[in-house]
Every structure is written in C-alpha cells, then in structure tokens.
Amino acid sequence: MNADHTDVVVVGGGIAGAASACRLAAAGLSVVMLEKQSEYRDLVRGEWLAPWGIQEAHRLGVADAFVFGGAWEIREWVQWDEVVDVDEARAVDMTRFLPGIGGPQCFPHHTVCELMAEQAAEAGARVVMGAGQVEVTPGPAPVVRYRTGDTDHEIRPRIVLGATGRVCTVGRQVGVSMANSVHHWGAGMMVDGLDDWPADVQAMGTEGDVMFMVFPQGYGRARLYLNFATGQQRRYRGPEGQRRFLDAFALDCLPDRGEAVTRAVPTGPLVAWPSVAILPQNPTLAEGVVLIGDEAGNCDTVLGTGLSCSLRDARIVCDTLLEGDDWSAAAFEPYLAEREFRMKRLHFGATLMAKLQAEFGEHAVERRRRARQLMAENDALQVTGLLNMVPPEDVPEFGFSEFFAERLLRETV
Fold it and tell me: Do 253 and 284 sit in the same domain of this protein?
C-alpha cells in the first residue's frame, strides 16, 4: 500500500469535484482528485447551467472549460403546453436577467468534466481515474483508501471533499443521514439531426402523461428529457425504447417541432432514473470531511439548478479553505447556513414546478390551466421561475410562502 500526504483529497470528478480541484490547485494547495470512471463518458446527467451558475464558474476560474467543452447559449425559453394555444405560447428572453452573463448554457456534461480534470492536472493536481473502492475515515487526521487495478492506496490529507453525487459514497461512510423522496421519473437522451429546431430556444411543457424538455447544444444536437409518473419505470426499456422515447414528442402542442424531434438520431444512451429529492437530516460534514454538490443534498431535478448549486458549493468551500488555516468543522458553519437557506428555497420552487408540470390526469390539467391563467393576469405569480435565472437569495421572499402556493395551486406544497 502506497501512503502519502496532501492538503485536499476530492472524491468525485464531476462538476463540483473537478471545479474544486481546479480552484484549489491553482491557488497552490496539493490536491488529489479521485474519479471512479476510467474515462469520462455520457452518463446522461444535468447539462443546463443557469446564469447564476455561470457566475460561479467564472469565480472558480473554470468558465473556459464550459466554453471549450461546447457550451451553447440559450437565448429564449418557450413553454408549449396542452393548456395553451400553440400560437399564444410566449417566448421569454433569457439573456436579460444577469447583465454581462447572458442566457443559460447547455453542454455535454462529460466533455466539460474531462476538460476541468485536465485543467486541474495542469494546475498541479494529481487526477486519478479509475479509482474504486474508496473508503474515507473522518477525524482530525482523515484517511482515504482506494484501489486502482490490483493496487491499494492510502492518502492522509488535511481534509476530504465528498463530491460523489447522489450515490453519497462519502456521506454514508461518515454518518451523514439523508431523507429521499421521489415525485416522478425522468429519462434523457442525446440526439443529433435536429436541424429544424430553433438553435437558441429551449422548450418545456406537459401533455397527456409526459412532461418534455428540449435543450439545444448547437449544430442540430440537443439533449432531450421526458418526465413521467412513478410506476412507469419500464416504459422506455427494451430494444425499441429509443424509438418510443422519440415518438413521445409527437404532441399536439408541438405540431411542427415535435415531428422534427421524432426524426432525430440518437447519439448516446437512453437512461431513466427516479427524480429524487435528497434532504440531509444532519450536517453534511464530519471532522475532516465536507460534502459538496448533490452529495450534500439536492432538490427535484425538474428545476434544473443542480449544477449551479454544485458550483456554488465548490466556490464557497474553496474560499473557506483558501482564507486561512482554520479547516475545522466550525469554519464551514457559514457554508452550511448559506446552503440550508438556498436549498430551502430551491426545494420550494422545485416542488411547485413538479406539481404544476410533472403531474398528470384531469385534476392536474385543470390545476395547470388555472395557474397559467393566474400567471398571465399577474406576472408576480411567476416569481419562482426566477430561480432558474438569478441567485436564490435575490428572488423576492413572497414567492416562498404557503400563501403564495395556495394562491397559485389552491393547495399547499
């Protein structure tokens, strides 16, 4: 067993972990980043970054990885839906919310992670791909053990950053407890040949028993998502699953563009997953260990703010590590407080959106029709939609009250 010492071990080479490794290595700390994949590949993960997430990428010094990784600016958002006449669907200008930032970005997740890993290595970090069987022992002198091939390794860092995503590999080992809830299921796939779709327009909407999302990535490529009710986990499995997935976009609310989607060509795997909201039941840290990104808890994926949250986590934790020599648990209390406030708002907004867009049947249709009418009459009722554009702390407080939810839904969330 090879034992060595380092300042920071980052477990997980996704967006949160790789961004942290870049920032800390660039600042002169010794960093080891462990990634279980032997090479980055399309795992069908979030590929949409809100403008406030782009801000965080700039602060971390990783914005170029998104640019060179193929980030594509989305300038308009249209919500087509069965409760709105096709000709009355309004386009929202997504470039106007954060001056100097522009609209949200869509990109191939695995390509950006690979570029950030290269950036971290160039800055001096040791990037270990194919690192398996990771074991983390917390304490004043934490220990990390892992295996590559037939070789066992041991590192004794000053601190460990857990960034393994929803699998919570590090969190489970250090005693962090999570409460999980599943509202619906989702499926996603990359396609090419979508040349008839407006290149800078993202779309979402609900019809029948699916909620659809289309996120262009430029040059006819797009990531497609469908959300559907629990209990239908197998609807896109099997040899004809990709064909059934594409055919699901042949919707009345997408009379022309839906047909364009059905003609698209799959260029990646089709993956389905439960849309899990994860709420930490105790602080997401232990002595010598701090959790970031989805490993620290997340809201329903329907909101689309997971990657922005990951970058915010990485930036705050990196700032704390670089501000001084106090790396004790107490030093991260401001991070935990900010994250608790942020996630409370995001959970509220995600719950609202899930109830409006990812529930199906006659009652759900009437609820959505009523809510859309209210929002058309009073723009203020669209306030939680700002969570996709601006930092959660900048969204007006009234959008997170039960009174607001009851007004919009005629029920609490």
Answer: no
